[in-house]
Write a structure and sequence with these properties.
Distance between the termini: 15 Å
CATH superfamily of the largest domain: Oxidoreductase, molybdopterin-binding domain
Helix content: 10-25%
CATH class of the largest domain: Alpha Beta
Number of helices: 7
Order of helices and strands: HHHHEEHEEHEEHEEEE
Number of strands: 10
Strand content: 15-25%
Radius of gyration: 17 Å
Shape: globular
CATH architecture of the largest domain: Alpha-Beta Complex
Number of domains: 2
Structural class: alpha+beta
Length: 255
């Protein structure tokens, strides 16, 4: 396999050149003006190049069972720990529903049982974190694309905004993420409910998390509650399309 210059390579190299910034965590990275400028400068080039290279929806590399990491690190929020989330968790998420709405013809409200009853995709992929670590895990879930087709996208729907139960770090801003329809309909973009053959635990995003395998880990939103189809992203959060993007990270985090 050819060793392409990946976004992860650029991130690692760029962080080193920006004064030897230690990759100790997303908060530390987002606080660095140099790192934020580096991300912004590379985004349009990276997205254009990867969209051209990925014409025809090629898959991210998939691995074998023997490649699965012995430990898959839980990163970011380990538990939303809000009254609403704790009530759902205490009931084994039986009362939880995923809402798919916005610019759709037929809004959906799906239970975890509903999602598990759908055709599932299982994939063993590598999770690459902007902090510099990676892990390989076996994910299982429902493909997002067929769900969007069932909901019936309106002509002006361009982005899927993932609303989460997580107010990262206990702040006022709820965690959210967004992807475009190219990634939304990619066969490896799934709403995952299992990791390594077991239901997601709270630390890894129970009951449901996004897996968008061609992007960095902060795009893989945990604790999904709602998917809203929209035409624009500037009315959400601080207008950049995601919690970390609002704090200087790039919106398209391709690897």
């Amino acid at each position: 396999m050819k060793d392409f210059l990946t976004r992860r390579t650029l991130l690692t190299g760029g962080a080193i050149t920006l004064g030897g910034l230690a990759l100790t965590g997303c908060d530390a990275l987002s606080a660095s003006p140099g790192f934020r400028n580096f991300l912004s400068a590379g985004e349009s080039l990276t997205m254009s190049a990867q969209r051209a290279l990925m014409f025809g929806q090629p898959l991210a590399r998939e691995f074998s069972e023997r490649d699965i990491s012995p430990v898959f690190k839980a990163n970011g929020t380990k538990n939303p720990n809000t009254p609403a989330y704790n009530a759902l968790a205490s009931g084994n998420f039986n009362a939880w529903r995923l809402r798919i709405d916005g610019l759709v013809e037929r809004p959906l409200d799906l239970s975890l049982a509903d999602l598990r009853a759908l055709p599932a995709r299982t994939q063993i992929t590598r999770h690459d974190c902007v902090e510099g670590w990676s892990a390989i895990g076996k994910w299982q879930g429902a493909q997002l694309g067929p769900l969007l087709q069932t909901a019936g996208l309106k002509p002006n729907a361009r982005f899927a905004v993932m609303h989460c139960a997580d107010n990262y770090g206990g702040g006022a801003d709820m965690y959210y993420e967004s992807i475009d329809l190219i990634d939304g309909f990619h066969p490896q973009t799934i709403l995952a409910y299992n990791l390594n053959g077991q239901p997601l635990d709270v630390a890894h995003g129970a009951p449901l998390r996004l897996r968008v395998e061609r992007q960095l880990g902060y795009k893989h939103a945990k604790y999904l509650m709602r998917i809203e189809m929209v035409e624009r992203l500037d009315s959400f959060g601080r207008g950049k399309g995601g919690y970390w993007e609002d704090r200087g990270y790039e919106w398209y985090a391709g690897i």
